[in-house]
Structures are given as C-alpha cells and as structure tokens.
Amino acid sequence: MPATATDPRTARPRSWWGWGYADAHPDDAECVALGALLPGTLARPLPLPRVADLSIGGPAATPPASLAHLVTADPEERAAHAMGKAYRDVIRALRGRPGRIPDLVARPGGDQDVADLLDWAGENAVAVIPFGGGSSVVGGVEYRGDAHRAVLSLDLTAMDRVLEIDTTGRSALIQAGALGPVLEGQLRPRGLTLRHFPQSFEFSTLGGWLATRAGGHYATVHTHIDDFVQSLRVVTPAGTGASWRLPASGAGPSPDRLFLGSEGSLGVITEAWMRLQERPRHKAAASVAFADFHRALDAVRAIAQSDLAPANCRLLDPGEALLSGASHDGSTVLVLGFESATTRVDARLETALDLARAHGGRGEAPTADRGEAPTADRGAGADAAVGSWRSAFLRMPYLRDGLARMGAVVDTFETAATWDRIPALIDAVRAEVGAAALKATGHPATVNCRLTHVYPDGAAPYFTVAVAGRPGDEVQVWDDIKAAASDVLHRHRATVTHHHAVGRDHRPAYDRQRPEPFALALRAAKHALDPHHVLNPGVLLG
Amino acid sequence: MPATATDPRTARPRSWWGWGYADAHPDDAECVALGALLPGTLARPLPLPRVADLSIGGPAATPPASLAHLVTADPEERAAHAMGKAYRDVIRALRGRPGRIPDLVARPGGDQDVADLLDWAGENAVAVIPFGGGSSVVGGVEYRGDAHRAVLSLDLTAMDRVLEIDTTGRSALIQAGALGPVLEGQLRPRGLTLRHFPQSFEFSTLGGWLATRAGGHYATVHTHIDDFVQSLRVVTPAGTGASWRLPASGAGPSPDRLFLGSEGSLGVITEAWMRLQERPRHKAAASVAFADFHRALDAVRAIAQSDLAPANCRLLDPGEALLSGASHDGSTVLVLGFESATTRVDARLETALDLARAHGGRGEAPTADRGEAPTADRGAGADAAVGSWRSAFLRMPYLRDGLARMGAVVDTFETAATWDRIPALIDAVRAEVGAAALKATGHPATVNCRLTHVYPDGAAPYFTVAVAGRPGDEVQVWDDIKAAASDVLHRHRATVTHHHAVGRDHRPAYDRQRPEPFALALRAAKHALDPHHVLNPGVLLG
Fold first, then answer.
1. pTM assigned to the model
2. Distance, CA of A366 to CA of A383 (rounded, Å)
C-alpha cells in the first residue's frame, strides 16, 4: 500500500503520487491490460512508490511558535504536496525522483493566518506554494530552483466553508479552499449550484480554479470560472483587499481579472463571491456521427456561431470516440447537450441537429426533454454515447497512471485558436507530435483530439498523446513531446493553454506568447505585491 | 454660428462645445420650451459660445520638424479637443470658462506616429490625452493640473480603417480611431456588424469604447465591449505589443483585460481584432406596463435570471417613460426585445411576457417575429413605445444642451449593484440626490431612473437629474449633486460606473472603491509602461 493520507470527507485514502483515491487505481492486472494497448510498454507494472523510500530530511526552516499550530513537517504530508498530478509528476514519483519535497506544509484557517505565514516567509526567504487540491498538470504547485532558504506548501483546504448565500441574486461567498464536492454539498440544500465541473472536480478547489482560470461545465458562452466571479478577496504580502460584489462594472481595468490566472504569484485568493445557477429542469442530449472529421468541424462551427448555446458540445475524433466507447466504426462523434432551468430545450437541440445534418452528420434519436426534477447530474445528456463518454472522462486520469506504471508516456495538452486555423492546427499536431513521439521512443504513438469548448470565433482542441516510453527516460521523452507540442501550437498561433494554466511546464511558450507591454506590467505588479518574491516563484514570471 | 469643424463623413458641422452636430442643436425657441419644463430656469437661453472669445495663445511646446505634419495648433481644433461632452463641460463652455485648452492636437496615421509622439512627449514633459470621438462624460479627455509643460490632444480618428475581415471566424481587425458609423459602414458590405450601439455611437470610437469598457447593444450576457475583444494592439511609452488573436485563453491573467478600462493611462490602443455578429433576421419586441415600480423590478429580475437573454430589457420608471413618450399614465414601462440571426424568437418573448405578467405587468400585443431580412436597425423592436423611446434616446444629449443653455443643471450617472441592493439604492438616489439638488438650487429636481443592462445577480440603473441652476454657479451645483450621487452609491456599494468610465470626475469615488492590492499593482504597471507619467495624467491614478 502506498503512503497515503485519508480524505476526511470520504474516508477514502488519497494517493500521494498519483491521481485521486488510491483505492481507485487500476490494480497490477489492469495495468498489464492497459499496457497491452500500447506496443513496446513494460511486461510488468512499476512498483507503487513509497514515501519511506524518499529519505525526507528535516525542514530547512522552522516557523515561530505563533505559527507552529498551522504547520507540519510530517514526511507523508510533505511528499503529498511536492508536485501536482501531471504525467511528469506521476512518473517522477514512480521512478523515485519526485520534485523537491517542501520543507513544511501549512493549513491556514483564515486570512490572518495566511497573512502571518506570508510575513514570516517574506522575512525568511521561504518560498510559498499555494496549494488547493494539488491537481495541477502544468507544474503549478512544485518548487524548482534554489533561490530560497526553504519551501512552504500553503494548503488552503481547511478554508472550505460557504460563508454566505444570497438567494435573491443567486450568489455565494465561498472560501477558496473548498474542493468541488465540498462546496456543492453546501449549496445543494438551497437548490443552487456553481455548476463548475472540470475533470478534476473531486480533487480541485475553488481557489485553484480561480488562480488558473479553469474551464468548466459549459461548452459555450460562459466557459471559464472567470465568468462566474462577482468579487475576490486576496491576501498579498503587501496587504489584503477585496473587490466589491458587483454584477458588472466599468470602473477602471477589472481588479479581479488581474488575479484570475495569476497562479498564486501575486497573492493568495482566500474567498470569492461566486454567481450560482439554479439546477436545470430541462435537458436534452444527442450524439451525431460523422464520417469526416473536417466536415464535423464545420458542423460544430455552425452550431457555435448560432445562438443555440449548447451546454455540451464535444467533438470526439475517431480515436477519442473509440476510447470512450462512443463509437466503434471510425466515426467522429459530436456529443450535444442542452439544459435550462426555465424553458424546454427540445427545439434548440433539433435546430442544432439540423445544422449537424446539413454538414453530413448522422444524428441518433435525441433523448427527449422530459422536464425533469432538478438533478445534481454532472453531465448534460443521457443517451448511450453521452453516458459512456462521461464515465470514461472521469476514469481517464486513473488509466493514465496505470499506463505510467507500464512505462508508457502520456501527455494531455489543450489549446484554443480561431476557426481559420483549427483544421490545419489539428492536422499538424497529429503529424508533428506523433513524429516527435516516434522519434523519442521508436514506438508509434496514439494522438487523439477532442474539442472541449467552442466559440463563434474559434475552438478549444484537447489532445491526448500516448506512447511506450524509453524505460527510465520517460521524463525526457515527455519533455521532448511537450517541446514539439509547444512548438506546433506556437507556429499556429494557438494559445499555450485554454484552461490548464501556465505553471512551470508552459513557461517557455508562455513567455513567447505574452505581449511585452503586459509582461512589463505584470512584472511590476508582482514586485509591488510580492516584494520579497516568495509567492510561487517560477510560474508566469522570474 | 458657433465655431465648428465640419465632419468630413457627413459634411455636417460638429459642435466644439456641445453634443454632436451643431445643426441638430435645439434653436432658441426650443430651448425656451425646454426651460419651461423646469421651474426656475432662465427666461432666455445663454448665447452660443465662440472660440474667438477664448483668447487662445500660442502653444507652450513645439514638436520637432519630423512630427510637424501630424500636429496642429489651430485654435478651433484646440478648443474642440479641450473637454468631453459632460454637462459640466458644456456649461463651462457656455459660461466662457472651458477646461484647459490643449497646446496642440495631433492626428497620427499609424502606430509609429503614435510611438514617435509619445517619445517626444516623454522627453519634453508634455501630457498626452488620447482622444477618440471626444464624447467622454466623466472628464476623461481634458487636462487638469500644472505638472506638465504642455498638453497634446492625441486624436486617433485618422486611424479609422477596417484592416482585415475574417468571415470564417466572424471577426475583424479595426483601427481604434474608427467612429461607430465609420466602422459599421466598412463591415456592412460583408453582412457583418460589431453591433455595439452606445448612445454616443455616432460620436465615439472603437478605441474609446475599449479604453472605457463601454456598455453596448445587449442588455444581457455580453453587455460590454470587453466581451467582443479578440486581441488588442497597444502602443506604450515602454514599447508596443499585441495579444494573440484567440477565442479564449487561460495563459496567465488576461493581457487585454488590463488595457480594457485603462482610459489611456497605460498606453494607446491602436488596433483591435473584434468579434462580429451576423445581422439579426428574427426580431420580436413588446412593452409591458406596471403600476408598481418595485414589482417591475421583480419582473425584470425573473427575466434576467432566466436564460431567455433578451437583447433589450430596459425598465423605464414613470418619469423616464413619460419623457420618452412610452407611457403617459404614470406607469413603469419595460421595453423587451429579442433578436437572432438563427432562430425564431417569438417563444422567448412570450415566455418573458409570461414572467412579466406574473409580476403584475400588462403586456401589449407583441410585434410578431416576421423573419425579416437582415437590417441595420439600431434598436431591437418595432412597437410604438419602443420606437418612441429609441428616438428620444438619441435626441437626449441635444436636449440636455438646450436645457444647459436655459441655465438648468443636468446630470446623468449610472451604476450597477446586486439585486438585494437595487430597490433601496434606487429609492435612496431619488430621495438623497433630489434633496441635494434642492438644497443646492432652491428648486425641485426631477430624478428619473431606468435600468439599461440586467444580470442574473444584479442590474445597472441609469439616473437623470435635472434642476434649475444658480445662474453662473452651475458647475458648483453640478459638483454638489455629483458628490451627493457618489456618496449614496458608495454607501450602497454600487459601482461608481457601469459603463461611463472613471475619468477625472469619478476619481474620489473610484479611489475608495478600488481594492488596495489592485491599486498597488496598477500604480506599478503605470510606472513601468509610462515612466515619465505623460499618459492621460489624472485618470485612474496620480
């Protein structure tokens, strides 16, 4: 059994090195079955890593007695806060070479605790890595470098309360450390929901979503957590402040938008007033098969440029569709879902299906809008393809870790670009990233693509690459694949990330993408708010 | 005839001191009729002001020969660039005490011209006031103070071209100096529209809308120009840069959102890729009368919290409804409009009307959705109340200037707040601003209110105050009213502006509203991008 901490909510053991719950990991036999899907993987899975093998020493800094009750130097806690959950993190743990283990883990109970910890860190050159659910897949929660005396992981999950609910304006004041199920559990009795369901939902926090501009439930219109922010409270080394609770404002540049996406480098988001939704009463879903991926892109564009606003509009290429069980005949599959708390949605679905058919889609009979009672349902549809896709979606990170144990290299990366660039971009990623993976490993790679969010002016493709690795050299292979991916995205002017954040893994590409005047402004803001440069050093800047 | 410059597009004379076209101003007889509506105004209108009476001297700085072709010191040009078009600006001109006349007016032809002018200004302590259509109502385009050697008004309107149109992704690269009709005229042949129609549409530019986060056509969902920005190009004293053209991105804090609302204080926006719309084919509109304003608020909230997304959802209180001819019986009137390029909108209108009736509304027969050919129609409806309201809307600034000539004091201010605060806020503004106006003038004031934009979590009320002034002391009266308005907004935690910007008039209230960490960041960004502090000094900061 690997070293784990038990999740106090679910009484289930959390994995310190891999995704989610340790008891949900594929067992050795499943790992072998997964490995059989990729030629060239290992015959037997790598053993589960143990914290005891990491030889974790004493912490390099000790906080004063006044802060001692907030801080632990327990090795298992420290190991579980050393990295995020990218493949790169998982394989480093499996190979016994995890990222730098933090010296201390702190669990503040409120703003003053956070401010006190930041004060101490600033005075003692201790790097502070804000940590929510720890699900970063971009190296966002680990320390790299040696410019600091010690490293403190600032775990916000003790601050997980919904402090206030305004039912008139449908919003709530929520502490940033609340994990998805924790905050939804507190909203449900009032019939409301934040309805933000990233793949990491169970293992990520409101603060993490805000700091990384996470992509959420809705495939169109309000796609990011940003759109649901009414106000933010931020603790910085230079002081604490909150924006006003407003439905909208034109008073200067948006203060919230500077902290959204700041990845813990400008301050620690401790609370937010968030806009909520009523649970949907009307739902209708359908899937549409296409023989041709490029015609399917045209269909999705037509739907995105209508004002139909589907809640779900995922296009799965043949590989994705096969993997998730949505199709077995090489079809591209479009999964469409509509939902509303107010009005029937059948007509919108029918119009969308008409658009899809006009571009060669073969629609299945849609699930009728039955005017259901509100549900806590996480998906937006109910037919077979939709359902199987959703289950596969939640299981994917566990399977990735099973593949990692078989010595496979798996990367997922996502982007967004304008429609004029989308077809060539996707073709280029398939060709060039596949070639890079082959070159790095000698094995053929699987490169799959889906569109997760769509806009009138463009779309967000999400890619999965899997290939047998070079045993012991998996990190280098991953880095080579990542470099190839970043390069092709850059040449096609596709963003380095649509919703996974920059972290440390995307820094080179981000630096090339960011306009220089904004870089100057951001650097200046960082220096003003974090004069000792202790906040999450290495993400975004520096 | 007042001193004017002729608009090269329309061959109509622009007013240097008042709103819009000089030939559209009310004549003396109309002014007298307007004055009769407000007890205590003058018997005869103030005379039209003349530039020749301003005794404008030579400029305090002269640019080098290399820039001479971009710059003029013509007194009429300088007078027309001295101020915006707030009541405060108009009455100062009428009383012969306009704001500081700029020394020079520059009309750059491209980015390099802008950069060269900024370089010269930085080296010579010349304040640079970016100027689009000059329609600011918050003191956004005038110089106050004496820290600079000279003042240059940077008029962007020579940069007015649509440089590129992407029909696949429905977007266009547009120069920032394009006035509303100029850019729409270039988009129309391609069947596309930006569909941003502020009251100032004819006399404001894309760059001005972006720099002030202008409110636009849509009453719900995408209410501000911000939402239509794909990328921005910004020239700053520290360098020029453009964000990538992206439908969405999660790569760090949004670079565009720092410059949106920066009011020319961080850089000069010179171009933007903007998201466009197809012209709507389906429209349906109706108006609903309510006996009770507070019940009407509940109706509007129900509609805003549905997902019906009306394009127009204006609530006019009895005074507004009377003034615009939408109602003559003391009713509150809700003007509803739906539009779509894709689908029929009758059903959405019917559902909205049901919601309104459930809260006591008496709906008129709606205008049917006739599936019209796409139109360039600026409004969203066709029934009598809608039409009369729209004409009155466009005429209002001219009438305000007519009232100013009769010695009246007129202020319009707008805000936004969460729904829980809206009823008490509106009642308090009526009572307290009315009392402040009475105290300042001895005359009873008219205070009207409408909601211009609505959200699931709140609304944006817009107020108009009119009262006979103290002759010769109108600016002080206006300032007293403004202070009372700012105070009541602040106590109710309503934003200092939803879409009119901060400028100089809102600075004290903005300073109190802005969270301190953001103020530190903004000040640092300003210093990094504008190290000589020449860009629009006095707005937002400093």
1. 0.96
2. 7
